[in-house]
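new request in #modeling-help
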Amino acid sequence: MTTSTVAEHGDPEPDLFSAELVAEPFAALDDLRRQSAAVYLANYDFWVMTRYDDVRAAAADWQSFTSAQGVALLPEFNGNLVGSVLASDPPEHDQLRAVLSEKLAPKGLSKVRSDIRGYADQLVEQVVSRGRFDAVVDVARVFPINVVADLVGLPQEGRDKLHPGADATFAGFGPFTPYLQERLPAVRGYHEWMAQMTDRAKLTPGGWGEVVMDAVDDGRLSMLGAIKTISAYMTAGMDTTVNAISAMLRLFADSPEVWSTLKSEPTLAGPVFEEILRLETPVQGFFRVTTKEVTVGGVTIPKDQRVLLHWAAANRDPGHYPDPARFDIRRNPLDHMAFGYGVHACAGQGLARMEAVTLLEAFIERVDRFELTGPVVRGGNPVVRSLDSVLLSILSTRS
Amino acid sequence: MGVEIVINKAACEGHGLCELTAPQVYGLDEEGQAVLKQPVNESNQAAAEAGARVCPVAAIEIRR
């Protein structure tokens, strides 16, 4: 592959994983979207798709855009992924997904809603009583991680590995960036810890971990499959929700009118979450591999090419979402691509919605206004749009 | 021009976005699976299509 659509246009090729574009990706993504339906990036040898309709169609077409060769960029990381629910195609994929689909479906989740709301109340009460807190460190990196770890039935000891491990693992979906290099020990430690969780003695009875181990006992999953399944769901349940919640709380400080509208209409909690997912899509994209020559919007991608389905770019396609850079509390973009789409659509999206809405309800009851008290610190993860620190003070209904 | 709505029960995971978008057309049954609440005709076709569109797992097919 030497021909490049970018080169033909005479534009310099963007490095989507550079620190500069990770911090501020949207202008480069707009350029790529304008250039063509699929652009070949020679620097990492993959194609990127950025237009909403194309990304959605490719996500739905798993026969042409396979996940079975891994959804990361590098072979080193795809080797560990292949055969997991994330990196397989039907029918194998459907069997793996079925292991937990009942627990993850909204009907199954309705049983745990009051527990999650209770935990949201407890955590929010704690930060509100302090008056000042870090939305990332004290809320966003605490709430979803404990919710998911409790549901899986993981022990308390070792949970401190979860967020750094999941964040580093996500970085492993991209190239060998300095960010990833520095975190390889975290990836290793996280996966070693997770591998121990196939010991039933460590798992809380009745949790999802036990459901996975039951599937090993009756032959639906191998032991390696069990580790991959637990790891996949834990990883997927962390950096994603963590950063969506961080972005939401930052938004309320930046745009007090959004918070006051939500306060007066609490049923907008769902739409607020969907719109932040669209605007600040945490997982930037996942890779697929073409199983045959595919033509997209007049561009022909040969067989066996790695293609990045860029969820974040699709979510800001002005052809689908008018005025895409604007947060519109009434847009309620339920068809956004932040959870992917089709057979690999995020299995935990119902849980993510439940976490976000219960957390918002807990804040709505207690907070009149959020204010930034320090500089917002953006995270450097090249695959997940992230925040490292959002210092807030609150004006409380109760103070 | 009528359309036919086909819900793929094997793919449906009960996320409920169809019902949220078009409650007059879609509901969830006791198993938490999407069902059509009424036949689709000219009066509710737009709602039915909007509900199908937001299905995250592409379980609702519109046949023209």
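bot summary: Residues 37 and 296 of chain A are 6 Å apart (CA to CA).
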